[in-house]
Amino acid sequence: MSRDLFRAPPAPRLAFIGRDLQFPVHRIYCVGRNFADHAKEMGAPVERGTPTIFMKPADAIHRDAALPYPPGTTDLHHEVEMVVALGRDAGGPLSPGEGLALVCGHGVGLDLTRRDLQAIAKDKRLPWDVAKGFDASAPVSALRHVDDGRPGPGAALWLEVNGERRQASTLGEMIFGVDDILVHLSQLFRLRAGDLVFMGTPAGVAALKPGDRYRAVLEGIAELDGRVEG
């Protein structure tokens, strides 16, 4: 009988707030330009159209308070986002209204971006992978189980850096809602239990530097605190 050449690392896991449960991460999907004010600040047209989707590897998840500053960049940017966790497989493409039944929890996270490398990729019309999918590029809070609360459209999403509010909006300002995104993703991928969806960021993205302390909040649901290490 054949054997593995090496021991495979375990799947990254997120805790649930107030519950003795773990969430093993399968994939990370991210939604780009899902707040009109952020699309404007990035010079992109504001239109409903088709959602912009990209991905991060599952092991980009970062759970520690100490966040390492990544190599290869001098312009690391924060993007605070609601994170949606799927606890059920989709049997196939979803119809409108079926997506929310897959959701088992919510959290708050940062979609970290090596903005200088992204700008180079955009200029050359190349993929963004090195700008988005690096190690520790997805800090995420513990998850709030849906039975313990769901965020409504009025829920505030915000980020402070060194005590200064940099990003703030409400979920109702998203161009595409959770069900919209899950229905769209299900046309392209087989959605599985363990998938995370980063739902997009409001305006105010800016640089994080070594020594910066950050606090991300999805009102009534989850908080994430950390410090950037040089």
Set out the fold topology.
Elements: E1 13-16, E2 19-24, E3 28-32, H1 36-41, E4 52-56, E5 61-62, E6 66-68, E7 76-77, E8 80-86, E9 103-110, E10 113-114, H2 115-123, H3 129-132, E11 138-139, E12 144-145, E13 156-161, E14 164-170, H4 178-188, E15 196-198, E16 213-218, E17 222-229
Parallel strand pairs: 3-15, 5-11, 6-17
Antiparallel strand pairs: 1-2, 3-4, 7-10, 8-9, 8-15, 9-12, 13-14, 13-16, 16-17
Structure, explained:
This protein has 230 residues and is mainly beta. The chain has a single domain, classed as Fumarylacetoacetase-like, C-terminal domain (Fumarylacetoacetate hydrolase, domain 2), CATH 3.90.850.10. Helix content is 13%, strand content 34%. It has four helices and 17 strands. The strands form five sheets. Strands 4-3-15-8-9-12 form a six-stranded mixed sheet, covered by helices on one side. Strand 1 (13-16) and strand 2 form a beta hairpin. It is globular. The relative contact order is 0.27. The mean pLDDT is 95.
